[in-house]
Write a structure and sequence with these properties.
The chain has about 500 residues and is mostly helical. Helices cover about 75% and strands about 0% of the residues.
Length: about 500
């Protein structure tokens, strides 16, 4: 009898050591609210689920997701430290799932990937690389073991895209840990899953996450913008109750030059107070208003951002662009006072902040007309930007300002579909790549690559993409070189296909 009791206890222990997993309505609704950044409402459904299924490991997974998003969005060290234990608790709970569950490694991969993103925000790059590598191994294994478990696709796709964006100078890291991927492969997989989520109600709750990733990729990484219009048409109707989609729609609309619609999206933000604070949207609003030449309103929103945001990114640029607003108002002394703050604020992790830091270090008032032309161009006021450039007296410009003027001409003619004139200016700028550390030659080479690729002049496109990747410059290096790397990969694939045919 004693042995029988022991055996029953042992087998009973093993039985209860395995956790439960239910992706039911409570969890799906919570997931929807999480992706809307409405965490209080998400937690209401999690609390309901805790009462009904207290051992459901999807609960700590979703709590970890909330903790990640709070950390990522706020960039607040205190929020990050408080929420890290959610990741550990979730991984511990998920580890109790049976190995036969396709959710076990899938959820573990997602948690590692999510918190790797958070760690990058807080400068923990070594830990982030370890977690990305771990996520890659887990999802590769899960895709092999459970090929018909479709949620694998999105995680696998995002990892492929991340790997594809790694600049060439870090390729040795990928070789060291044997990770392979590209933006093109990852994008195809995301569209594959989007079709599945639209056709199968079991996966419909994951559709919004997939749409968000696709919106980011299409507007930032694809030289052809038609696909971003399709994504936009799907997310705009959802943006009234989803702050993440509101942010993405603003991102797409501003980059497509649909400013009136973008302003309408900004107005939606002020109508709701049930979202998690997303102060970066105040920075985006200020940046948008500055391009519209609404300097007073821009200064107001930059001030809101600088007062409330606890992170380090975009701080330098917010101070720099506040200084620009005063410069546009004809107040160079105010510019000097505010640009002096840039040196001791924020950090240089993102390209726009590095650009602001370099301007601070130059210790000179920039040419107002070039600043105005840059802002008018970014605000899709191409004719006005062109007029600003034409009215500049070249005798007042130094070498780098003259180079910037040519670069701005190239950008304007490119965007107004006068590509042959644009190519002329871009090539003049590219020739000067050894004479400057500015980003103008590199981005000119990147744009030449994109023009020639769209014209099906693939060898010329490849030459300029490679030229871009070989240049040395200080601003926006990672983003420009990542796009050049992906462009070269696309062109190489097209050239290979042509040879085969």
């Amino acid at each position: 009898m004693r042995k029988l009791i022991i055996l029953l206890l042992v087998f009973g222990f093993f039985k209860i050591s395995y956790a439960q997993l239910h992706v039911n309505d409570n969890c799906k609704l919570s997931y929807e609210y999480i992706l809307s950044l409405r965490f209080e409402e998400a937690n209401l459904y999690l609390d309901k689920e805790k009462k009904q299924n207290p051992n459901n490991v999807y609960i700590p997974y979703l709590e970890s997701y909330i903790g990640f998003l709070k950390s990522f969005i706020s960039e607040d060290d205190e929020v990050f430290q408080i929420n890290q234990d959610r990741m550990d608790k979730a991984l511990e709970a998920i580890d109790k799932l049976e190995n036969s569950s396709p959710y076990k490694n899938y959820l573990k991969a997602n948690i590692n990937l999510q918190w790797a993103f958070a760690r990058i925000k807080f400068g923990e790059y070594f830990s982030a690389v370890i977690e990305i590598n771990r996520a890659y191994r887990l999802i590769e294994k899960n895709s092999t073991n459970f090929p018909d478990f479709y949620p694998n696709i999105t995680t696998h796709a995002v990892l492929k895209i991340i790997i594809g964006l790694v600049p060439d100078k870090y390729d040795w890291v990928l070789d060291l840990i044997s990770m392979e991927g590209s933006v093109e492969e990852g994008t195809q997989e995301l569209y594959q899953f989007l079709e599945i989520a639209e056709a199968d109600s079991n996966y419909a709750y994951l559709k919004n996450e997939c749409l968000f990733y696709l919106g980011f990729i299409e507007i930032n990484l694809n030289p052809v913008k038609e696909n971003s219009q399709n994504i936009l048409s799907q997310i705009i109707p959802l943006s009234d109750s989803n702050l993440l989609f509101n942010y993405m729609s603003i991102n797409i609309l501003t980059k497509l030059g649909r400013n009136f619609e973008a302003e309408k999206q900004f107005s939606k933000i002020n109508n709701h107070d049930d979202y998690y604070p997303f102060y970066f949207l105040d920075y985006l609003h200020a940046d948008f208003l500055l391009k519209e030449q609404e300097t007073d309103s821009a200064k107001k929103y930059f001030a809101i951002f600088l007062k409330n945001f606890k992170g380090k990114n975009y701080i330098k640029d917010a101070w720099r662009k506040t200084a620009w607003a005063f410069l546009l108002e004809g107040k160079p002394d105010k510019y000097k006072k505010l640009i002096s703050v840039v040196g001791n604020s924020g950090n240089n992790d993102v390209g726009i902040d590095k650009d602001a830091q370099l301007e601070y270090e130059q210790d000179a008032v920039p040419n107002v007309a070039l600043i105005k032309a840059r802002l008018l161009f970014d605000g899709f006021r191409y004719n006005m930007a062109l007029t600003e450039l034409e009215n500049i007296d070249d005798s007042n410009l130094n070498f780098e300002q003259l180079l910037e003027k040519k670069y701005r001409y190239g950008r304007i003619y490119h965007k107004t579909n006068k590509t042959e004139i644009a190519k002329k200016y871009y090539k003049e700028v590219v020739i000067s790549s050894d004479l400057t550390s500015k980003y103008f030659p590199a981005n000119s080479a990147l744009n030449l690559g994109e023009i020639y690729e769209l014209q099906d002049s693939l060898n010329m496109a490849l030459m300029y993409y490679k030229k871009c990747g070989q240049m040395n410059f200080n601003q926006f290096e990672n983003s420009i070189k990542s796009m050049a790397k992906e462009g070269a990969r696309r062109v190489n694939n097209d050239l290979s296909e042509k040879k085969q045919n």
